[in-house]
Structures are given as C-alpha cells and as structure tokens.
Amino acid sequence: MKKRVVTLLLVAAMTGSMVVGCGSNSSSDTKSETKTESTDTKTEEKKELADDEYQYVSAEDTAKADGVHVLDVREWDNYVTGRVKNSEWCPIFPLEDDSLVDAMTDYAKENLNDGKDIYIICNSGKRGAEKATGVLRDAGIESTSIYTVEGGAKALADVSGALTTDRTEENIDWQYVSGKDAVAAVDDKDVQILDVRDDDTYKAGHLKGSFQCGLKEIESADAQTAMYKLATEKMDSSKKVYLLCYSGNKCAKTGISILKDAGFDLDNLYIIENGAKDGDVSAAFVTE
Question: Which positions make up the signal peptide (predicted)?
C-alpha cells in the first residue's frame, strides 16, 4: 500500500497562492509543500512525524481497507448521504465548535488508542483532516498511525462502491432479545422500545409506549436523519433499546448503526427476534 508523507512549511511572505480546504474556499496563509514519497511495508519501522507533517492514504486503498479505523469527521448531512462501510463517525465540523474537540478527544481515548491505523475522511482531505489529526495527536494517538484520506470524500465518490448508505452489513456483533422478554420489558423504565416500521403499520398495532421512526427505506438519507434526530433529541443513550422491525433483520440493523452514530453503546442495543412476526409480540400490540 502506497502512502505519502507531506511536510507543510509556513512561508512568512504573502504570495498569490491560495490553499483550498474542507468546507472553505481559501486561506490567507500561504504554504509551500515539500513532498516525500515512500512505500510502507509491514516490516518497515515508522518514523516519528513533526507537527507540520501529515501522512496520506489514497481513496482507493481506503475503500478496500481492513483492520483499520476509518474515521469520518464530516458533518452529519454530508456523512449520511454516503459513508465508507464500517466507518466511525466523529465530526470535527463546524471547525469553530470547540465542543467537538472535546468529544473527539474522549472518543479517541476510548476507541482509537489500540495501535490500529486511522484513516481520516473529511470533505476534501484538507483542513478538517488536519484539525482532526491534531486532536488525535493531543489525545495520545501515535502520529505515525494517523492518515488523511487524500482528496477526502470527494475522491471517494469517484471510486466505485466506496461510499454507501447501506448499513446492514456492518461489522457489528448484533444482539437479540426474545419476543417474550421484549413484551415483559414494556413497562420497564430502564428499557426503550424503538419501532422502526412504517407509520401505517405502526398505527395498526405496536407495543405500548414505544418510540417510532420508519426505516422501511433503509438506504434513505432522510429516513436515517429522522432516526438520528429522534435518538439525539428524545431518547436516552444511557438506557437499553429493543428495536422492533418487520422480521428482526435489516430495518433493525440499520437503526442500531444509526444509534451507534448517535452515541449509544452497542452493548445496550438489541434486535427483537423475528420482529413483529413473533407471536408474543403481535399478541401484545395496542393501537392507542
């Protein structure tokens, strides 16, 4: 796999050059780039990087990467329209929002400090990735493990199949709860039941007290966004969630993937086995 290391040297004198960044048209600082290309091998020792050095990986290699963290730092509205399979979402945009730095720092310490390489996706592979790299370094992540996806999401969009809205094939250890246990949890204040069937089906019969957000169109960015807003605005990320769909498969899996992005712990997320087809579940349906 071919990766690049780029050193950015600040130039004191102003020139007419403009540097294009993620989510920005230009920057008043002029930078000259000294590029050194190198080919990494598994046995090659990684060298420490200076603060103004960044490593790059191609969009093509990112699309087929395995055993790495693919960290998407774009805003939700960009991320939800097309993401790399199994990517992790931790936004750094808007860049002026300091609370996102704190959230990324916490996320890095809890999830990324395992020695695996990290591939950062921003809009175009510039300012967002550079800021995220700095945050990760400050959080204690080895600088030699951090790579910017060259060209960002714009480059990935040109790679066939690199970006997807399908969340059903994620590397998630799906957990299940029986219909009987789900029905028993209807009045449990520590369990939230989330029905992801369409509106009309939900109205015809559902478990009492359940939240509802239709995910029948599992690849719809609008449907996924509605689910994300419900999760962040009305649900409690500290409590267990039992997801009910038509048969306990794709809609529920999509919901779990979105809840993960919304900050819910995967250990607290369960699919109700067989969904609405389960006899105990359908017998407990109400229409109020």
Answer: 1-22
